[in-house]
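Sanity check. The docking grid for EPZ depends on where the pocket ends up, so I'm generating a full predicted complex first rather than guessing from homology. Inputs follow.
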Amino acid sequence: MDAFIIEGGNQLQGEVSISGAKNAVLGIIPAAVLCACTSKIENVPDIKDVNKMIDILEKLGAEIYKEQDTVIINTEKPISYDVSDYEEETGQMRASYYLLGALLGRYRKAIVPLPGGCNIGDRPIDQHIKGFQALGATVVIEHGQVKMEAPELKGAHIFLDVVSVGATINIMLAAVRADGKTVIENAAKEPHIVDVANFLNLMGANIKGAGTDVIKITGVDEMHGCEYSVIPDQITTGTYMMAAAATEGDVLLKNVIPKHMEAITAKLTEMGAIVKEEDNGIRVIGKRPLKAINVKTMPYPGFPTDLQQPMAVLMTIAEGTSTITESIFESRFKYVDELRRMGANISINGRTASIIGVKNLSATKIRATDLRAGAAMVIAGLIADGETKVTDIVHIDRGYEKLQENMRNIGADIRRVSE
Ligand code: EPZ
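Predicted complex below; grid placement will be based on this.
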């Protein structure tokens, strides 16, 4: 297992170019199997979850070529709809659930193990299944596998009981190949929903309204390959923005979409950081002391749950008492014990953490309890006095491309060690 060793106290300065969005590309790669065709996808981040998804598709029979950040997926020969033999691979990430929608769309059949992913609370897939059933699939869950069959896939009117990123994308993946019109109400509106829909439309699908809470899909008989470039990662951008603000740094983030960052920009500005939109990106200048603020995680365009953990680190050194309410996942506070070990003053009451700012965090050995908690631990290490060791960084490698290199390029004293 690798770990990061971080010597805290350096102010981050310089530029970072943001890689493609993990949660978009993890929907786009399975979408590429919806027809017998070849697609070229650019701006693909080199992260473990993406490489695992590529590995699974290759095992199913797809031909995939990868060069730098470009991935070419050729599914002209039929691929298998049965993923049951690859339980170990699918169990290492959440997004393996997108194989359900994509394979059902193409073959009217799919057998896919239940997904894994970050341990951040109860993560049912009942809304995905409700959607597939509405489209005409019979769904059986047995021996850890979701087995679906739909002799006929027919458009349907689906009202999601909760706003779900995964269910919205998964239903889109199947519905683009169904007969007739599907309407998804109470759909998620995240930038990656729009990105997957744009990719599908380039493949010949007919999706309207992605990015609003009502998505209308008219099924098509034919789809074809396309060339596409993935949007920049909103959460990665936000992570570097917070690292810059926490370290009193001055960092320009390039290849970003400022509109996607508005909720984060607003909160960092409220804390006293300077966030400027420049021609070629977003510049963040950190100013200490940071001011205490209140944050509640919400579906897009609200403050993203995936940045709740990094934001909590900033709050640990802000003047006054901050609160952070997690309204999406009920146990996304596992990292709090790690921050307490660094001297943070945090109390949890239900879904709300109250954080009384301390002068500084003190370095120690801490653990990345999941992907975004891992990013939060890195930021904590950057501001702590002394040497912090972050263990279990395998979680970070799932979702951040070259975190250590990028951080070093802007002045962080961080190195990777193998244990
Ligand atoms: C996606 O997870 C992301 N994962 C998560 O990113 C992200 O935190 C989350 O969306 C919210 O933005 C991927 O895109 C691969 P949801 P997902 O379905 O699809 C409940 C990261 O760090 N729900 O939007 O699992 C669910 O329990 C990761 O990059 C149901 O009740 O999230 C949660 O409370 C972590 N039934 C809420 O909805 C369902 O069928 C939102 O979950 C589905 C979800």
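Relevant for the grid: The longest helix spans residues 48-60.
Also worth noting: The mean pLDDT is 96.
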